[in-house]
Specification:
Layout lengths: L2 E6 L16 H16 L4 H6 L2 E2 L2 E8 L9 E10 L3 E10 L4 E10 L1 E2 L8 H4 L1 H11 L3
Antiparallel strand pairs: 1-4, 2-7, 3-6, 4-5, 5-6
């Protein structure tokens, strides 16, 4: 299974009154990790969108273990948990500099036509994505 580790620079505006990263910002970090993962596979969201297709989040889960604070180095590890040709589940672990897990989570995505949000088959529309995802899962 392929995993990609991406450094995160904690910005001051991402923190709350308690001095820790506000919980909703972890979803942004998930997206940063997911984009880095896709680019590591040699793929591009931009190219997908140019083809009239988008990949909305249809489900998100997060579990908070410990806070990340402003100025603290953070890293997000991203991988594919499940993929069936239509729906993709990405997994995430956000860690501090010592490797302690701060947040875990998953997001589910489908690939849809931009104009009507009808689901499409990745296998048929983007066979290169399909093969790359199978390879990242270790199914190839």
């Amino acid at each position: 299974m392929k995993k990609v580790l991406t450094p995160i620079h904690v910005r001051y505006q991402e923190t709350d009154q308690m001095g820790v990263v506000y919980h909703a910002n972890y979803l942004v970090w998930f997206e940063i990790g997911r984009t880095a993962f896709i680019e590591e596979l040699g793929l591009s969201y931009f190219n997908m969108e140019q083809a009239g297709v988008v990949s909305p989040v249809v489900k998100a889960n997060m579990d908070f273990k410990q806070p990340i604070r402003y100025g603290q180095p953070a890293y997000i590890e991203t991988w594919i948990v499940a993929y069936d040709g239509l729906r993709t589940t990405y997994g995430y672990e956000i860690r501090d500099e010592e490797g302690n897990i701060a947040v875990t989570g998953t997001t589910d995505h489908v690939i849809v036509k931009k104009e009507n949000f009808r689901p499409i088959s990745v296998r048929r529309k983007f066979p290169d994505w399909h093969e790359a995802y199978l390879s990242a899962l270790g199914d190839n």
